[in-house]
Design brief:
By secondary structure, this protein is of the alpha/beta class. It has a single domain, classed as Rossmann fold, CATH 3.40.50.1360. It is built from five helices and nine strands. It has a six-stranded parallel sheet, covered by helices on one side. It has a three-stranded antiparallel sheet with strand order 3-7-6. Strand 6 and strand 7 form a beta hairpin. The two termini are 19 Å apart.
Length: 213
């Protein structure tokens, strides 16, 4: 595919936000951290959306002090909407996750996701029981150097739509395995219907060429 996938994803997300505001009077979105989040947010800010009617939750967060550069919260500082941060500085993380989950909307309009080179999305580590949780938010313990809090597949898959933005050749093997239905990957728990995937050519490099009729 040609063009910048973050620019295309930002335009798509802006349309979804405007549509939600028009239909229901507000937009409710959840966003992930990671390397693709900042370019997505920059692209989104190029569009006219009703930020005063938009509320943003976190899909996942690292357990670290406020202001720590490892926190995903720092990436949200540029977004002018109302932001609901995960309570990762509380002493009892499990109780904090329950409180955050209890405060989630009945249904998100959009959930933004990324894809790790190990096949994880959100903070669903390979082999972790969080993918089968019946709660809405969980404290999952240590993953890639940080304890973490994350929304569960129950919430992600109930959203009206999902946006997956992934770039770079290191992601290509997992992109191909996921889209070719490798059920062993955590990302395979993401509902495919109404999930919109934005890739650059490098991330799409291991996909088979399209067939021609």
């Amino acid at each position: 595919m040609s063009g910048d996938p973050a620019v295309a994803a930002g335009a798509w997300l802006a349309r979804r936000i405007r549509d939600a505001v028009r239909r229901r009077g507000e937009a409710l979105i959840a966003v992930s951290g990671g390397s693709t989040a900042p370019p997505l947010f920059r692209a989104l800010l190029d569009h006219d959306v009703a930020w005063d009617r938009t509320t943003i939750w976190q899909v996942d967060e690292r357990v670290a002090p406020d202001g720590d550069p490892g926190r995903n919260a720092g990436q949200l500082a540029t977004l002018p909407g109302r932001v609901r941060l995960m309570p990762v500085t509380v002493r009892d993380l499990a109780a904090g996750a329950r409180r955050y989950g209890a405060g989630l909307p009945d249904r998100f309009d959009v959930v933004h996701l990324g894809l790790g080179s190990d096949g994880h999305t959100a903070s669903w580590p390979p082999g972790h029981r969080v993918v089968d949780s019946r709660r809405t938010c969980e404290a999952i313990g240590e993953f890639n150097g940080f304890d973490r809090m994350t929304l569960t597949p129950l919430v992600v898959n109930d959203a009206r739509s999902r946006l997956m933005l992934t770039v770079g050749a290191p992601k290509a093997p997992m992109v191909a395995r996921w889209l070719l239905r490798d059920r062993s990957l955590p990302v395979s728990r993401v509902r495919r219907t109404d999930t919109w995937v934005f890739l650059d050519p490098a991330a799409a490099g291991d996909l088979p060429p399209p067939t021609r009729a």
